[in-house]
Amino acid sequence: MGNSRNTSLDTVVTDFILLGLSHPPNMKTLLFLVFLIIYILTQLGNLLILLTLWADPKLHARPMYVLLGVLSFLDMCLSSVIVPRLILDFTPASKAIPFGGCVAQLYFFHFLGSTQCFLYTLMAYDRYLAICQPLRYPVLMSGRLCTILVAGAWVAGSIHGSIQATLTFRLPYCGPNQVDYVFCDIPAVLRLACADTTVNELVTFVEIGVVAASCFMLILLSYANIVHVILKIHTADGRCRAFSTCGSHVTVVTVYYVPCIFIYLRPGSKSPLDGAVAVFYTVVTPLLNPLIYTLRNQEVKSALKKIIAGRGTMNEHK
C-alpha cells in the first residue's frame, strides 16, 4: 500500500483518501464551479457583514451585532476548513489527505461547529434579555459581559474539538484508508479503526447529544419566554417588530440543528444522505447566514445602504 508504512506489528495508515461526493464524471467541471462560486460568495457575504458592523459605530457597540459579527467570522472559518478541500475532489488532484491533516480537519470542524452552537445560545439569551428585560438589558448584557461570554464559547468549543479529535485518533488505523465522506468526520473515520469503536460511538453520541440538546433547550426556553412576552404586546406593529428581531435567529438555528441531529444522533448510520446533509450545513448554511441576516434585519440593511450611499457620494466628489 503506497500510503502506509510497515512496522513490526502491523500496517499503520499515514494518510486517508477522501471519496467525497459521488457524482457523474461529466459533472466534475460544473460541480467545481458551483462549489467555488458558493465558497467565494460565502467569504464575500460574511466579510461584508463584518465590514458593515465595523463601519457603523451604533452597530458594533451593541451585543446583538457583536454576536452577529462573531457568527460571520465563524462561518468564514468553518467554510474554509471544509470547502477548499471539497473543491479539490472535482480536479485531477490527489484525494489523499495526510493523517495530520485529517486530525486537524476533524478538530477544527468540531471546534468551530460547537462554538457556533454556543453562540446561537448566546444570541437567543441576548434576544430574551432585550425583549423580556428591556429596562435592565444594558446592565444584564454589557459589552464586557458579552466579551466574556463569547470568549467562553470559544474556549468551550476548543475543549469539545480536542476531546473529539483525541478520542477518534487514539484508536489504531491500519487500513483500509478510504473515508467514504466529504471530509474527515467522526462517524466516517471511526468505520476505518482497527479496534472496537463502541465506546467512541457512545461518547460521541452522549457528548455531542448533551452539548446540542442543552443549547437547543436553552434556545427553546428563551423563545418560549419571548413569545409569551410578545403576545402581551397590544399593538400589531409592536408584535411584528418584536417577532422580526427574532425571525432571523430562529431561521438560522433551524437550518443548523436539523442537519446536526440527522448526522450525529443516529449512531452507526451509513445513510447515503449523510454526505448531502453534511454538504448542506458545511457549505450552504455559511452562505445563507449573511443572506438571512441582511434580508431580514432592518438595521443591517440601513447600515449597508449608508455605506453604499457614502461610497456613491465619494465617487461623485472625485
Automatic annotation (TrEMBL):
Coiled coil: none annotated. Gene3D superfamilies: Rhodopsin 7-helix transmembrane proteins (1.20.1070.10). SUPFAM superfamilies: Family A G protein-coupled receptor-like. The keyword Oxidoreductase does not apply. Keywords: Cell membrane, Membrane, Olfaction, Receptor, Sensory transduction, Transducer, Transmembrane, Transmembrane helix. The chain crosses the membrane at residues 30-53, 65-87, 107-125, 145-163, 208-231, 243-265, 277-295. Pfam families: 7tm_4. This is Olfactory receptor 10G2. It comes from Galeopterus variegatus (Malayan flying lemur). The gene is LOC103606801.
